[in-house]
Structure formats: structure tokens, C-alpha cells
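Worked example 2:
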Amino acid sequence: MKSNKRPIGTIIMISMIIFFYLPILFMIVFSFNSSKSLTHFTGFSLQWYEKMLTNNAMMESLYITIFVAVLATVISTIVGTISAIGLSKSKKIVHDLIMQINDFPIMNPEIVTAIGLMLFFITIKVEKGLMTMLLAHIAFCIPYVILSVMPKIRSLDPNLADAAMDLGATPWQSLIKVIVPQIMPGIFSGALIAFTMSFDDFIISYFVTGKGIKNLSIMVYTMSKRVNPSINAISTLVVVLITIVLIIVNVIPLIRQKRAKAGKKIKNQYFVVVGVIIALIVGSVGLGVSQFGGKNKKYQGQTLHIYNTGEYTGENLLSDFEEATGCKVVMDLFESNEQMYIKVANGESYDILIPSDYMIERLIQEERLQTLDQDKLTGLDLLSDNVKGLPYDPHNEYSVPYFWGSVGIVYDKTKVTEADLEKDGFSIFKNPKYRGDIYLYDSERDSFMMALKALGYSMNTKEKKELQDAYQWLVECVQTMEPEIVTDEIIDNMAQARKALGLVYSGDAVYIMSENENMEYYLPKEGTNLWSDAMVIPKNAKNVDLAHEFINFVCDYDGAMDNSSYVGYTSPNQEVMTDLMKEGGDFHGIDAYQPRAGYDKDEVFTYDEKTRKIIAEYWSKVKIAASNAN
């Protein structure tokens, strides 16, 4: 009698399939979501596909990915196949040595390979960009091709080529008409592996690229720092393309078998498959390239290089500026002010930087910025007085505000009372009532600001005892309150009310409150960080006039409105700020949008290298304490 129980192997297989494919299905479904939420489906919409197709940077990253993957696949397949054939005729000691060397990059951690290639390009003084990315991809694809082709070569009769030449074939004809057709399955497998490895590579690409060249993996990584459902749309598009290719790859051999049984033949099935794939790719690239093009404008042919943090630019800001000036904008993205500083300190050239207040102060102190030409700036009069003349640049000689805001507490008013907030201030993060229900932000500056303010100290203190007290305050918090220390994932998590409260930037609170009516934003009475990010021009900028033009464009009403309405952070343009807050505006009723101004306990960060190092060391210890507590 047969058992009705499923074999354990079948259950594991089904579980694995669900584990791998459910997230993909989840992503596809949310690519049609009508809201920005990545976890809560609010209705069907194609808006993210429309935004994806009109986002030049996103589509360009897709075309670069395809171009590099195709070219790297073709070159690495040719080189790898020739190398494998040559190795098959080499002496055993040479063959074994080369195969050991070939296996090393495959087994080596990608991060090691990435850093090695980056240092190599820096040493030989090759400017990083499309060419260095392509060379790196070819280098790491070749070993996979050799590994795929070698088993097929070993299975061949070693006298096959000699027999062909005895029958009158030339060495070239023997290679092309006899050897290659016999090992074609291995070549095709190697090419598919090379294409896959190149198409989805992130780590190596991230370290060897420059000049604004980004493949899809880098683009998605930088976009994921903030809520952007266009990630789902472009990822779904890739899944569809790959599915079409896989169907073609699997269907053509079946058709060939059926036709063979019927006495018919399909020659060169692998070339047919490759031809179809290339046709699809060329078609998509051609469609994309047709979107781009310039007009004869004042700055036609010039390129503006901007260094900004990810997802911090209006939806149409860059394309509108390109249209208005005729230039091309290349925007590189940094994860932190410290990462930006390293590149600038190492001499990398940008025309515009958009760092935070304390980093601008450091760059001014180290004379890495040039003073702005006030005669070329037309937008300063449009800005709020609250963002001009700040301590890091009292006369706006070096900087023009880009966004500004505060750091406060976003909370679920169904779980947290305003009375508790009024009573505790930042110390609510140590209130046992909310144990296990809080988020801390993984930022040493803002976490220490919170602790220092809770203790009644200035957030710019240099006193060792006060810094030590703040450290102890944070250690007690993480050891007793079981907080979750996060970065930008707090945005969607709080929008879904997964915790009672969290420390956030005001611009993120704007999005959270717009998504969930139960969320509110609170600024403690003990004061907070009133931050500002601004546009500056480094000393080694190459397009200074164009940089001033961009600053003016961002300050003007249209540019500032696009920037602020899309990103959600507070515009320095007074009229834009007023329009977005008034009835009918995008952020009407969301008090987090307009920072608290004129409050004497609010401070702007000032830069002190010695204090920064102390805080950085303390914060590392706080996170270790949090890990041990959990």
C-alpha cells in the first residue's frame, strides 16, 4: 500500500522554490502599487513604470549594464575558448599551473578582487569609468568561460584536429569547422555564465567605476537608500527580459528535437539563440538611446559633475537642467559625508558637492572650496533668512543651501502619548514602557546629539566628561530598551507602524506622516539639531560657470519645487516652502515639513576633528553593547 506522505526531499524542494521565488513575486506585485510603500499595497497603478521610463539616469544604467554585459561576454568567450584550446595542447605542468591560477579568481572573495582591480587602475593612473568597468568584467568572466569549455575539450578525441588536417583542412578550418562545433555546448554555457555574472555584478563594478558610470546594480543600491518603488519596476522589467531569454534557450532545443524526428534540421541552434538575445538587447538599447539627445544651447557639449547623496534630487531636476542648458549632468552618489570627503581629499574632481553643514565647515577650514562669485548668483534673495548666514558659513561665501531640516521623534499616537513626550523629551528612548518598541538611527552624530540634549548639554560640546556621560546614556539605552538600530529602513517601517517611536530626520517624517495618519512628529524642548545641506564648488572644479548656473537653477522656484515636492525635505526657497505648506499644498497639515526656527536651544553642528574621533569610537562601542544585549 502506497504512503500518502510526500517525500522529505519534495517538501524541501517546494520550500526552497517558495523561498527563492516568493520575494520576486512580491516585487512584481508592488511594482504596480499606487503608493510609495514597499510593504503595503494600496491599489493598482502603472505610475512607477512611467517614472522608470522617463528617468534618464535609471534607463541609462540599464543600457550600460546591457552594453557591458554583452561586450564582456563576447570578448571573454572568445579569449576563454582560445585559452582553453591552447591549454589542452600544453604540457601537464603548464596546464595544471594555469588552471590553478584560473580557479583563484573564482574562489577569491569578490571584495578582494574589487579592491585589487581598483588599486591596479589607480597605480597605472587610468581614469575610472566605462572602460575600467568593461576591463574588470572581462577579467572576472574569462575564468568561468575556461572552466565551462575545458570539460568539453577533454572529452574530444585528441587526434581529431590532426585527422581533419590529414584530410586537407587548414589549421584554421580544423579549429572552426571541427573543434569549435564539437565544444559549442561548453562555449555556450560559458557565455551564459559570463553574461549572468556581468549583468548582476555589483561589488567589483562599484569599486572600478567613475565619471558617473553606473550599472543597474549600483543604481538600485543607491536608490534603495530611500523609498523608491521604481526599483520594483525596473527589476520586474529585468525579470521579464531574463524570462523571455530562458524560454527561448529552452524551447529552441525542443523544437530542434521534434524537427529532427521528422527528418528536418535546424543548424547552429546556439547561434540562433545568441542572435535572438542580441536582437532583443539591441532593440531595447536602440529604444533607450532614442530618448537622449541635446539641443544647441549655451553649454552644449559641456558636462557638469555633481557629487550628492542618493535619492536626494527632484524627479525632473537634472533632465530639466540639461534641457535648459544643453549640457550633460553626471551625478555620482555617496553614502556618507565621510565617504565624500575621502574622494575630495584624494583629488577627484567634481563641479558641485552637496555635503552637510559640519563637513562644509571642515572643507572650508582645509581650503578645499572656492568662494562663490556673488555676481553670478541670482537666487540668494529667494531663500529663507533661516537658512542664510549659518555658523559654518556666516556670509554664504562658500555655500548655497540645498535642503534643511531638524532631527526629531516620529511616533505612533495610538501608542505614545504627547504627555510622555513632553515629560521625557529624548529620554523617552529610555522609558521602560516602550522597551523593544523603538528605533535608533545609525548615525553617531545624531545619536550623540540626542544623548547630549537629554542630559542638558550642548551637542557641540568638547568636554570629555560630557561626551563620556552621553556614551553611558546610550549604552544604558541599548542594554535596557532593546532598540533596533537602523538607517533608512526606518522610513517604511514607521509608515507601517512597526514600532512605537523612532529618531528620524524631518524630511523622512514628512513621508511617514503622509503615508500614515496616526504618525506625528515631535521636537523635544531641550533642543535638537537644526541641520543644513548646501551646494559648494570645490577648488579643482572644471566647469565653474556651469556650476553657478546649476546653483541658480536649484534656487529658482521651479527647480526648488521639483526638488522639495519629490524628496520631501524642506526647501530653502521661501515661496516654495510656503506653497507646499498652505491648504492644497503637498505637505499641508504635516508640521514636520517646516523646521522649528528661532528656538534658542536648537543648534547647528560645528566641526571638530578631535571630538568627531571620540564620538566615532564611542558609537562603535555602543553598537557592540547593543549586539551583546540582543
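The chain has four domains: 8-50, 51-288, 303-403+532-581, 404-531+586-629. Strands lie at 303-309, 328-334, 352-353, 399-412, 438-441, 484-486, 501-505, 519-522, 530-536.
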